[in-house]
Automatic annotation (TrEMBL), chains A, B:
Taxon lineage: Bacteria, Bacillati, Actinomycetota, Actinomycetes, Kitasatosporales
Pfam families referenced in this protein's UniProt entry, alphabetically: HrcA, HTH_DeoR
Similarity annotation: Belongs to the HrcA family.
Protein's UniProt name: Heat-inducible transcription repressor HrcA
Domain Heat-inducible transcription repressor HrcA C-terminal, residue spans: 103-322
Keywords from the named record: Repressor, Stress response, Transcription, Transcription regulation
Gene Ontology biological process terms from the UniProt entry: negative regulation of DNA-templated transcription
Length: 339, 339
DNA sequence: TTTGGCACTCGCCCCGCCCGAGTGCCAGCG
DNA sequence: CGCTGGCACTCGGGCGGGGCGAGTGCCAAA
């Protein structure tokens, strides 16, 4: 077990290193923090901390830097979530109010998060499967082609073009549209499959039934994970502040950011509620081994409809970042609830 | 005027420099190209080319590298557009077919372009103002709130929430929807303003007129440039290949890429048809002074509804990049025409 | 006009040096 | 037993000098 003071030393190391980006030595530590002990004592504590794997030296005769494990301890036991300042809070409101549609909300959120944390921001669009249907629209593009448009209560819109096996009359179309809406409007997406399964049979014309089945198939297909998840990233310019050695670091991170699948999985691991912090090697994806990911779910009501977060160097200001992420998530939730 | 051989020397310099990323000297040039003259002659030619501002030496006693002006001459007079190989062409088809909606088309295009050119790809969504309206949908979210959904012939969907000054009945809504669609469906967006201007007056109830005006105002506002333009970028990981000194270079480029306004202006300068190449300082935006932008319009018919292009180092393979950009633009145009 | 020759320039690489921050260890002190 | 000051040691980073070689410009000859 680590004594109180050793934890204090670890905290000091993390704070200094985050601030200066340079390995921190025993002397500098005692000067910058009121630890009440001499450098020699700190050195002993450091030796213990190193033994336990919380800190490391890049090379002999250099100061110490925290390891992933050290950051983990720091986040879990030594640091709280720093609440935002009033100006920052106001900035969030100013920035997010006035968004005209969902795309706008998401893109503003991304920019805001990137700016507040000075890191890379990732925002997932509200998941379809966890949203409710506001409206389903069917348009005839030509006699044998339909367009299906889905609108969710979170403002998301999806469309699909459908090739009908058989030409489909305008009356049947209006009919289908009405029946479809009366069944699914206001319902959760997750419930849609059983709500519509008997729909084809309720049509008299057998040709129409085929078309109705096709439409429903497309509708259900739209809800398949993988396809339905979208996200937006921003603040990649902040990657250039990652460190001096970043040519090597930045590459895999940029690659990871382009792999939506990777990011989605990353966010997918977020616990339903509450904030998740993944530090360095805790990230399953190799390219992100030298980064930390802070993420949290957001939603219009109590429950999360999607996630957002930031990707930054393991050497990041955890309390501040966590505060910003949480505050933004809450406010985005409010915005969505209003619209 | 430059002699034939001097132009040939310039071409050789550009090609070698693009390949090796290193200043090219007279000896190396004669070895790698059949110029039929000695290094000394080439040196004389180089001196002339330098005097004219087509090439420069990074420092005394180093080889020459092309200047922006040199690249310009190369692009204008020395290089054609390199057609893609059959496998590449096939790759485009494989990659782009199977896109389910417009977002999918755009995101696939971005990835494809980035992969083909190994540079940063930028794709603008089809412009609203140059598209036609396929359908306008009005939904009542609550008695006093409407949602306006616009669907274009290029598959783009825009939605806006409208707060009504006065509650608006379901009958009036259906009425408005019908009248609106009969007027604008199939028409160009640009024509919308005059098509709808007398619409409010055609309503009897004076309260309804206010709402109708609000709806129309929102509709027109949606078409305002700035707001209506969207784009997607990808392949930023390719920035890491820009050069050895890239920490300095990459930063402003990433920043520029995040500034949608900058990019839109960049693409906006593209001539209606035909490819545009902006080299180094020809780019108005300072952060892109060490990059070149190759862009072209694309569209479903003969005319362009939007633009796409790539951003790369001035030291890029112009013929190849131009070939890829053109080929992708053409195929995307086809895809849009089909859907 | 082209060519070979030649002296010259200058950036880069390599090496060795020194400096100093930081360490680990130890003996002494409370 | 824990803390402290002292001390020898380590080693990375910065600085400067020297050699190398690619590349140049100039010139005289073909």
């Amino acid at each position: 077990m680590l004594s109180e003071r050793r934890l204090e030393v670890l905290r000091a190391i993390v704070q200094d290193y985050v601030g200066t980006e340079e390995p921190v030595g025993s002397k500098a530590l005692t000067e910058r923090h009121q630890l009440g002990v001499s450098p020699a004592t700190v050195r002993n504590d450091m030796a213990v901390l190193e033994e336990e794997g919380y800190i490391a030296q890049p090379h002999t005769s250099a100061g110490r830097i925290p390891t992933d494990r050290g950051y983990r301890l720091f986040v879990d036991r030594l640091a709280g979530v720093k609440p935002l300042s009033t100006p920052e809070r106001r900035a969030i409101h100013n920035f997010l109010d006035g968004a005209v549609d969902l795309d706008d909300v998401v893109s503003r959120t991304v920019r805001l998060l990137a700016q507040l944390t000075r890191q890379v921001a990732v925002v997932q669009y509200p998941s379809l499967t966890r949203s409710s249907i506001r409206h389903v629209e069917l348009l005839a593009l030509s006699p044998a082609r339909l367009m299906l448009v889905l609108i969710t209560d979170t403002g998301r819109v999806e469309q699909r073009v459908i090739d009908c096996p058989v030409p489909f009359g305008e009356t049947s179309l209006a009919d289908l549209r009405a029946r479809l809406n009366s069944r699914v409007a206001g319902r959760r997406f997750a419930d849609v499959p059983q709500l519509v399964q008997d729909l084809p049979e309720s049509f008299e014309e057998s040709e129409d039934r085929a078309t109705v089945s096709t439409v429903l198939a497309t509708l259900l297909e739209t809800l398949v994970e993988e396809h339905e998840e979208r996200l937006m990233i921003g603040g990649t310019a902040n990657l250039t502040r990652f460190g001096h050695d970043f040519p090597l670091t930045i590459r895999p991170v940029l690659e990871a950011l382009e792999e939506q699948v990777v990011l989605l999985r990353l966010l997918g691991e977020v616990k339903e509620s509450g904030m998740t912090v993944r530090i360095g090697h805790e990230n399953a994806y190799e390219g992100l081994n030298s980064t930390s990911v802070v993420s949290v779910g957001y939603g219009s009501g109590g429950e999360a409809v999607a996630k957002l977060g930031v990707v930054g160097p393991t050497r990041m200001d955890y309390p501040g970042t966590m505060g910003a992420v949480r505050a933004v998530a809450r406010y985005v939730g409010q915005i969505l609830a209003e619209s």
